[in-house]
Amino acid sequence: MPELPEVETVRKTLEVLVLGKRIKDVSVFWPKMIKNPEETEEFIHSLKGQEILAMRRRGKFLIFDLNEVSLVSHLRMEGKYGLYDENDPIEKHTHVIFHFTDGTALRYRDVRKFGTMHLFKKGDELLNRPLSQLGPEPFQPDFTEHYLQQKLTKTERIIKAVLLDQSIMVGLGNIYVDEALFRAGIHPDRKAKSLSENEIHQLHLAIIETLNEAVEMGGSTIRTYVNSQGQMGMFQQNLFVYSRQGEDCRVCGTPIEKKVSAGRGTHYCPRCQNG
Question: What is the pLDDT at residue 236?
Fold first, then answer.
């Protein structure tokens, strides 16, 4: 699943591709993808004539800001946007097409059909699910070391589970949780409340540094992720533990191990993360 760096990269490329374009019509081939409003025809009608004014991101969600409405889109496992000429052949697994007045079209493809779209009156998107339940952004001022410490000391859960919880903090998924924990030297099965002040300090820094580096490199191309211009992310070349089980740790040389933590495949170095 694309995480914060990948979604931010898609946002940036969409900003270049579709800003200022006006929607002439919308084709929906998989209505179950539209979660709000309930009627697909209302979704289509509300978007006709709307201009894309801005592209935002909230956690792993993309937000298309238009004149009167905001479209909230989640890519889930395999979702991809691409800009095409209106006459280009429609590829398999294309489920939603936004037809623009200039003869181009933004197409949403999703092999697994897990992606979702919510349409809200402009200004209401942050007040309703799914965005209303999200925690702070790692790059925003409210994600402080003190905030993280408060959340960690109040739970019996392991640290891996807490960092995956989008109500605690948005944007981290399996890849970057593993990477941040490695940088902080913390074992993924540690109880969150057992972390010392210094460990929380190191973890706070590691989360921000890991995500910043990943954003700068366009995210990680794991399995099928590409941005909206078909380009792959490059951060996978800098991964310390994720998907490197059996390989030597780049810091100490100990083989990287993989286990299940918080229901997810988890990669770690048993020597560097022995605390």
Answer: 60
**Which residues belong to the active site?**
2-3, 60, 264
d(CA 178, CA 244): 11
Rounded-to-integer distance, Cα 40 and Cα 43, Å: 5
Contacts 24+ apart (CB under 8 A), 266-269: 266/160, 266/174, 266/178, 266/188, 267/178, 267/241, 267/242, 267/243, 268/178, 268/181, 268/182, 268/187, 268/188, 268/241, 269/182, 269/240, 269/241
| Residue 48 neighbours by CB distance under 10 Å | 12
Rounded to whole angstroms, the Cα distance separating 171 from 267 reads 19
Helix (H) or strand (E) holding 258: strand 257-261
pLDDT digits (tens, 9 = 90+) for 215-253: 887 765 444 444 455 544 445 668 999 999 999 999 999
Position 42 scores a pLDDT of 98
The per-residue pLDDT for range 80-107, each reduced to its tens digit, is 999 999 999 999 999 999 999 999 999 9
Domains of the chain: 4-133 (3.20.190.10), 145-268 (1.10.8.50)
Please report where in the chains the tokens 């820094």 appear, as a residue: 205
Tell me which H or E stretch contains 24.
strand 23-28
Residue ranges of E strands in 37-74: 54-58, 61-65, 69-74
Instruction: Tell me the CA distances in angstroms from 34 to 50, 171, 177, one per residue in order.
Output: 18, 22, 30
